[in-house]
Automatic annotation (TrEMBL):
<feature type="binding site">
    <location>
        <begin position="121"/>
        <end position="125"/>
    </location>
    <ligand>
        <name>UDP-N-acetyl-alpha-D-glucosamine</name>
    </ligand>
</feature>
<dbReference type="GO" id="GO:0071555">
    <property type="term" value="P:cell wall organization"/>
</dbReference>
<dbReference type="GO" id="GO:0005737">
    <property type="term" value="C:cytoplasm"/>
</dbReference>
<dbReference type="GO" id="GO:0019277">
    <property type="term" value="P:UDP-N-acetylgalactosamine biosynthetic process"/>
</dbReference>
<dbReference type="GO" id="GO:0051301">
    <property type="term" value="P:cell division"/>
</dbReference>
<dbReference type="GO" id="GO:0008360">
    <property type="term" value="P:regulation of cell shape"/>
</dbReference>
<keyword id="KW-0133">Cell shape</keyword>
<dbReference type="InterPro" id="IPR050068">
    <property type="entry name" value="MurA_subfamily"/>
</dbReference>
<feature type="binding site">
    <location>
        <begin position="22"/>
        <end position="23"/>
    </location>
    <ligand>
        <name>phosphoenolpyruvate</name>
    </ligand>
</feature>
<feature type="active site" description="Proton donor">
    <location>
        <position position="116"/>
    </location>
</feature>
<feature type="binding site">
    <location>
        <position position="92"/>
    </location>
    <ligand>
        <name>UDP-N-acetyl-alpha-D-glucosamine</name>
    </ligand>
</feature>
<keyword id="KW-0808">Transferase</keyword>
<comment type="function">
    <text>Cell wall formation. Adds enolpyruvyl to UDP-N-acetylglucosamine.</text>
</comment>
<dbReference type="InterPro" id="IPR001986">
    <property type="entry name" value="Enolpyruvate_Tfrase_dom"/>
</dbReference>
<dbReference type="GO" id="GO:0008760">
    <property type="term" value="F:UDP-N-acetylglucosamine 1-carboxyvinyltransferase activity"/>
</dbReference>
<feature type="modified residue" description="2-(S-cysteinyl)pyruvic acid O-phosphothioketal">
    <location>
        <position position="116"/>
    </location>
</feature>
<keyword id="KW-0573">Peptidoglycan synthesis</keyword>
Length: 423
């Protein structure tokens, strides 16, 4: 397995182009199942998770291929309705083919997605919403067997123990586009990526009101057409590099980054002592003064502080000049990065779903282990500011969600390189 080496103490200065959003690309690619016509999806990042979704579309019988930053899903018939274990087990977001398969064909067989290191990943809300539309669901030998022809629109409340659900909203939305009558999804997820999916479906001819809000209203239509669409920029990638500018006391211009997608993060970074300015359709980010102030964060569903930036913010808090409190309300176990940060000299203790972070200016490089996509990013950020060298193992986690990470960071002054595992 490849490793990343990071030489600490270098300041990040310059411009980073922000890629298309992974978490918008995945459901939008799944939504192409809803038409036999050609779709051209632009600004799609070249990531492992995107390649997995392309493989799933090809396994279903569609011809999906990449041309530069565009994925072309050629016209053609879906040949089968099975999303196989060997693909779904590598990416739990594959569950998002369930809704479009049911909406279009009334049947689907999708491997039950496993949990992952950030915690159990239940799908009760997905199944509740689909059953409300009239889908019969059985779980057998690790597969979800779903059947539901002639779905009927209903009012569905989709809030769960942790609030709204991004992929459950996506699945129910896509199952509802052809359902008879009106479907109202209450307490739907309002993340920009869910809004982007809704806008893509509208571009295909779906009748959807309330995109980007917590109530979606869908009127069933007869069919959807192929279309061309460009995916929004990745707000989590942008947020990660915003933190990179502050943690190294540098100055970065993030091309295409949109302030309105990261209001909670920007609010906290300003509190920490950052300056974030909107300039020419991107964001300029740097420190106002020399120190990083401690922060108090609770992760919530959008527009609250995103759980996908919690680990990265913890790396920044680790070098602040005070005590920070970070509470994880979406995935209470999402603290695997803490033990690795403490190996680098951070002083973090866990109290249930809350981490208490005592800032220090003495992070030191160490061999550490990546455990999930965003925890890996947190370790890279810590390595940028630690004294000496940090060696990050299991870097495949990063490759799932950050396009050209080493190239983008090296171009702005980081000393970072990949050590290929000799097979
Ligand atoms: C999406 O996952 C993202 N993934 C995750 O990003 C992100 O962390 C998460 O939303 C929350 O923002 C993609 O979009 C591909 P949820 P999703 O359903 O939809 C609970 C990354 O790093 N829940 O919104 O699977 C769940 O356990 C990834 O890019 C239920 O209880 O997340 C969690 O506690 C990691 N029942 C909370 O809701 C359900 O049926 C939010 O999960 C579904 C979820």
């Amino acid at each position: 397995m490849d490793k990343l080496l990071v030489e600490g103490g270098n300041v990040l200065n310059g411009t980073i182009p922000i890629s298309g959003a992974k978490n918008a690309s995945l459901p939008i690619l799944a939504a192409t199942i809803l038409t036999d016509e050609e779709c051209r999806i632009k600004n799609v990042p070249d990531l492992k998770d995107v390649s997995t979704m392309i493989k799933i579309l090809n396994a279903l019988g569609r011809d999906a291929r990449r041309e530069g930053d565009t994925i072309i899903v050629s016209a053609g018939q879906i040949k089968n309705h099975i999303a196989p274990y060997e693909l779904v087990s590598t990416m739990r977001a594959s569950i998002v083919v369930l809704g479009p398969l049911l909406g279009r064909f009334g049947e689907a067989e999708v491997s039950f997605p496993g949990g992952c290191v950030i915690g159990p990943r239940p799908i009760d809300l997905h199944l509740k919403g689909l059953r409300a539309l009239g889908v019969e669901i059985e779980v057998k030998s690790g597969y979800i067997l779903a059947n539901g022809k002639n779905l009927k629109g209903r009012k569905i409340y989709l809030g769960g123990h942790f609030g709204s659900s991004v992929l459950a909203t996506d699945n129910v939305l896509m199952a509802a586009v052809f359902a008879e009558g009106e479907t109202i999804i209450e307490n739907s997820a309002s993340e920009p990526e869910v809004e982007d999916l809704a806008r893509f479906l509208i571009a295909m001819g779906a009748d959807i009101k309330g995109a980007g809000t917590s109530t979606l209203k869908v009127r069933g239509v007869k069919s959807l057409r192929g279309t061309e669409y460009s995916v929004i920029p990745d707000r989590i990638e942008a947020g990660t590099y915003m933190i990179g500018a502050l943690i190294t006391n540098g100055r970065l211009y993030l091309e295409h980054a949109r302030a309105e997608h990261n209001l909670a993060l920007i609010d906290k970074l300003r509190e920490a002592g950052g300056v974030i300015d909107e300039v020419d359709g991107g964001l300029e980010v740097y420190r106002a003064g020399d120190v990083i102030n401690p922060i108090d964060i609770t992760t919530l569903t959008y527009p609250g502080f995103p759980t996908d930036l919690q680990a990265q913010m913890m790396s920044l808090a680790a070098i602040s000049n005070g005590i920070s409190v970070i509470t994880e309300k979406i995935y209470p176990d999402r603290f695997i990065h803490i033990s690795e940060l403490n190996r680098m000299g951070a002083d973090i203790v866990i109290e249930g779903a809350t981490a208490i972070v005592k800032g220090t200016n003495k992070l030191s490089g160490a061999p550490v282990m990546a455990s999930d996509l965003r925890a890996s990013a947190a370790l890279v950020l810590a390595g940028l500011v630690a004294s000496g060298q940090t060696e990050i193992a299991r870097v495949y986690h990063l490759d799932r969600g950050y396009e050209k990470l080493e190239e983008k960071l090296s171009a702005v002054g980081a000393k970072i390189w990949r050590m290929k595992e000799i097979k």
